[in-house]
Design a protein that fits this description.
Length: 435
């Protein structure tokens, strides 16, 4: 007997059109049922072979030149797809997985990030750093490096994390913040190399093979063979024939550089908090806060000032969450800012790759989620019972009619670990700060 719902979930996964709720549902089914896993593998293979057949028909068409290479690219794609699916299932505990070394960088925030490879987002959200270059087609993605530096990609961009302190920008724009001597980075482009000397700086690897380096604070060293120092408020263009004249950083370039981080922590907030019961004083209900029923509970004490909500790992929920949706009407172009305080309790601390997440989801008139921004914060290294605040912001895309705030836990499919959320806020601002 055919399971139409399972086929729909698998098709959504293979086509890259899966929603968060559908991904959770598929996760649970694959973990519980060997039969479902078998059907997943069969449909995955059929999906790849179908594409291979289409490619073969196109190659044999008299209107289309035959491929020059004797290799069979779709055979390679089939093998790669099977490997990707195996990795996806391994992340969810379906097949044995070996312990991985600490990645050079982990994703901490994203704003409407669209990746060239649809499997990259899944890996990054799970705390992994896929090998090879990261190709971001649009939006922004913020990474925390192992030694404390922040690297923000602004799409379209291609970046490769080569080592703990080495980043290669093959194309596009990145913004780097190195808050301590231990966190300093070396950033390579096809044209030049930038060595941080304690600063905030931006690098733009352009299509014409030139590189723009701009310093917001501190100083950097620019150049591969003949180096020059660049100080706060200075910019330089580097071409294959060497460094051009150092010039003041143009004022019109500051807004883009300062807004590179999706957090927009200094956003000007106009208006009041749109959330109902932001302190969870009235518990959970369909009208206010709800979510993954088996993994959330309202608590009367343990928050910053009393009650709160606890999201905890249990069972097969990979992304348990508490959420609230607000009707906003047409707010296209306005800045939406969400914030929340959270802590991991001492009696049930986070472990492994577990992490708390704050997410804004934009919903269109048909009720479909079509854009989001998110931030990761509380993790196993956080001090137990110590509340820290996270903030994330994004400009509402055209078509927005509702906004949902999600307070999430990446459970890593463990049966312990929880996060206490309190004092949530959702505010619509007209524009970010220009300071």
């Amino acid at each position: 007997m055919t399971d139409d719902r399972l086929d729909h979930l698998i098709d959504a996964h293979l086509s890259g059109a899966m929603s968060d709720d559908e991904r959770l549902e598929l996760d649970a089914r694959l973990l519980h049922s060997a039969a479902d896993r078998g059907r997943f593998w069969r449909l995955a293979e059929t999906h790849v072979l179908l594409h291979e057949g289409i490619q073969q028909l196109v190659a044999e068409s008299p209107r289309t030149p035959a491929p020059r290479s004797p290799a069979h690219p779709m055979r390679w794609l089939a093998a790669a797809a099977v490997l990707v699916f195996a990795c996806v299932l391994a992340w969810r505990g379906i097949v044995p997985k070996a312990s991985a070394p600490q990645p050079f960088a982990t994703l901490t925030a994203a704003n409407e990030a669209q990746w060239a490879d649809p499997n990259v987002e899944l890996a990054l959200r799970g705390g992994e750093l896929p090998p090879g270059p990261l190709r971001l087609d649009s939006g922004t993605a913020e990474f925390l490096c192992a030694d404390g530096a922040t690297v923000v990609m602004r799409g379209p961009a291609t970046v490769r994390f080569l080592a703990r302190k080495r980043v290669a920008v093959e194309s596009g724009k990145v913004f780097c913040r190195c808050p301590s001597p231990e966190s300093r980075l070396s950033v390579e482009t096809p044209t030049t190399e930038v060595v941080d000397l304690g600063t905030e700086f931006a690098v733009d690897a352009r299509a014409d093979h030139s590189t723009l380096v701009a310093v917001l604070s501190g100083e950097v060293q620019v150049g591969k063979t003949r180096q020059k120092r660049l100080h706060k408020g200075e910019a330089v263009e580097v071409r294959s024939d060497g460094i051009l004249a150092i010039q003041p950083l143009a004022r019109e370039e500051f807004p883009e550089l300062l807004l590179a981080s999706p957090s927009v922590s200094d956003a000007v907030q106009h208006g009041g908090n749109l959330l109902l019961d932001p302190g969870f004083e009235n518990g959970l209900s369909e009208q206010t806060w709800n979510g993954t029923d088996t993994n959330i509970e309202a608590i009367r004490s343990g928050g910053r000032s009393g009650g709160a909500v606890r999201v905890f790992a249990r069972g097969y929920a990979n992304w348990p969450q508490c959420r609230q949706k607000i009707n906003t009407g047409d707010i296209a172009g306005k800045l939406v800012v969400a914030s929340v305080w959270a802590a991991t309790p001492a009696h049930d601390p986070l472990r492994g790759r577990q992490v708390a997440m704050l997410k804004i989801v934009f919903v269109n008139g048909d009720g479909r989620d079509f854009a989001f921004a998110m931030r990761r914060f509380v993790n196993p290294k956080s001090e137990p019972d110590h509340f820290e605040q996270a903030q994330v912001a994004a400009f509402a895309p055209p078509g927005t009619r509702q906004v949902q705030i999600q307070l999430m836990l990446n459970s890593d499919l463990l049966n312990s670990g929880s996060v206490i959320f309190d004092d949530a806020s959702l505010v619509i601002a007209d524009e970010p700060s220009k300071n």
